[in-house]
Design brief:
The complex is a heterodimer of chains A (114) and B (114). With 114 residues, chain A is mostly beta strands. Chain A has strands at 4-7, 10-13, 18-25, 31-37, 44-50, 53-57, 64-70, 73-79, 87-94, 104-105, 109-113. In chain A, strands 2, 4, 5, 6, 9, 10 and 11 form a seven-stranded mixed sheet that branches. In chain A, strands 1-3-8-7 form a four-stranded antiparallel sheet, with no helix packed on it. Chain A is globular and about 40 Å long. Chain B has strands at residues 3-5, 10-14, 19-21, 24-26, 32-38, 44-50, 56-58, 64-68, 73-78, 87-94, 103-104, 108-113. Chain B is globular and about 45 Å long. Chain B starts with a strand and ends with a strand. Classes of the chains: A mainly beta (114), B mainly beta (114). The interface between A and B is medium-sized, with 24 and 25 residues.
Chain lengths: 114, 114
């Protein structure tokens, strides 16, 4: 079992829908990340939160909107997505941003845009 | 530009034989180095890291990695491969100072044949 829990595991949505991805960790980590991963490719960083504040936005389109309600939760709100946004979305956490500790990944949400 | 190279898209080994998955990097300073493994439909799992000290680092599942500063390499090794080691392996680096981003290599698919 992974220590980072992501829901839902699968999501199919139309281009006009609004949905949210959720991520939860209870390891006391203060840095949380969203990544996008295409098949057989490395994860691409989207957002980093450090102590519940947005630290990095990798020029992600505004149709993706992150939210960190508290130190254990991370959401990714989706609206008006495009077919090319279909991918595996991974959440990760680490003790602190930029330290020497590894990231802990969830198993991801597989997103399909119709 | 900072980069991580995994020169082999795929590595094929027979079960019981030693395996090596190669990684070289071009990052300023002395970065933190990591290896992650990804099984199908799962997130990335941390295997091992190099911070400082002994150039041979031991990690999970019998894996180890050899750090070579002059060659800026961090190759993953295992003395005796198992069929269950078949997966996608990612090398990753992070700068020691101000390095809030983890840079991933393109990944190497390891196939272990029984």
């Amino acid at each position: 079992d992974t220590e980072v829990t992501q829901t839902p595991k699968h999501l199919v949505m139309g281009m006009t829908n609004k949905k949210s991805l959720k991520c939860e960790q209870h390891m006391g980590h203060r840095a949380m990340y969203w990544y996008k991963q295409k098949a057989k490719k490395p994860p691409e960083l989207m957002f980093v939160y450090s102590y519940e504040k947005l630290s990095i936005n990798e020029s992600v389109p505004s149709r993706f909107s992150p939210e960190c309600p508290n130190s254990s939760l991370l959401n990714l709100h989706l609206h008006a997505l495009q077919p090319e946004d279909s991918a595996l979305y991974l959440c990760a956490s680490s003790q602190n941003e930029g330290d020497n500790q590894p990231q802990h990944f969830g198993d991801g949400t597989r997103l399909s845009i119709l | 530009a900072q980069s991580v190279a995994q020169p082999e898209d795929q590595v094929n080994v027979a079960e019981g034989n030693p395996l090596t998955v190669k990684c070289t990097y071009s990052v300023s300073g002395n970065p933190y180095l990591f290896w992650y493994v990804q099984y199908p439909n799962r997130g990335l799992q941390f295997l091992l890291k190099y911070i400082t000290g002994d150039n041979l680092v031991k990690g999970s599942y019998g894996f180890e990695a050899e750090f070579n500063k002059s060659q800026t390499s961090f190759h993953l090794k295992k003395p005796s491969a198992l069929v269950s080691d078949s997966a996608l392996y990612f090398c990753a680096v992070r700068e020691r100072t101000g390095g809030f981003k983890t840079i991933f290599g393109a990944g190497t698919r390891l196939f272990v044949k029984a």
